[in-house]
Amino acid sequence: MTELWLIGIGTGHPGHVTLEGRDALRDATTVLIPRKGAGKEDLAHLRHAILNAAGATARVIEFDMPVRDDSLPYQDRVARWHDEIAARWQFALEDAPDGPVALLVWGDPGLYDSTLRIAARLSPAPRLRVIPGITALQALTAAHAIPFNTVNGAVVVTTGRKLRDHGWPAGAETVVVMLDGECSFRSLDPEGVEIWWGAFLGMPEQVLHAGPLRAAEPEIIALRAEARARHGWIMDTYLLRKQ
């Protein structure tokens, strides 16, 4: 692999792929698609649907994603997982034809995604091309028809783990939470806080809920649990704002 293209594909809607992204999918020689195990076949199917919508004719190579070792400390767990993913990329591509290899990245490759960090582990290092995509942040604010920020107001984008460990970020009027499987908004004092939550953003399965955090909290927890049980997986994010 001498050239690797990381193509942001938005949050699951084929229309989220930019014209530049579609051209790249048509020009790529090979496309790598991860298989994430039982119950998550939709994620691979969506990638194939996006390739079909773009008119891509590249050779598609699938590989099985490794599982993180939950017995390790968090940073070690993630580092070893990334090492193994990079090794699987290279193994999968041993017999691939010459030419650019494309990876379809949910959202944008530069925002709360580790594909660039995994690519940095490849040896020899390929030439990288990054094509931006619509992020979950944009899809969330569009779905709720709200602005990302208040006038001259500070926004912090963080993780559920950080929200649980450190609470509301100092100086922020708006907090956007990514990568949260624990409904970490439950750890906050809900007084004066509004929440806008969404799952499967941009997809036909999209689920939304919004309102004062105190009232919305049990509704979101129930909606999230039901959606995850129905699909076997879930991608969600939310925006919190102090009024």
Name the descriptors.
alpha/beta; 24% strand; 10 strands; 243 residues; five-stranded parallel beta sheet; five-stranded mixed beta sheet
How would you describe this protein?
With 243 residues, the protein is an alpha/beta fold. The protein contains seven helices and ten strands. It has a five-stranded parallel sheet, sandwiched between helices. Strands 6-7-10-8-9 form a five-stranded mixed sheet, with helices on both faces. The radius of gyration is 19 Å and the shape is globular. The mean pLDDT is 94.
The gist of it:
By secondary structure, this protein is of the alpha/beta class.
The major β-sheet equals: 5 strands, parallel
What is the structural class? alpha/beta
Beta-sheet strand percentage? 15-25%
- Mean pLDDT over the residues: 94
Q: What is the terminal separation in angstroms?
A: 51 Å
Q: Approximately how much helix is present in the residues?
A: 25-40%
Overall geometric form = globular
Number of strands: 10
Helix/strand order, N-terminal first = EHEHEHEHEHEHEEEHE
Radius of gyration: 19 Å
Runs with pLDDT <50, length 5+? Answer: none
Tally of individual helices: 7
Physical arrangement of strands within the biggest beta sheet: 3-2-4-1-5
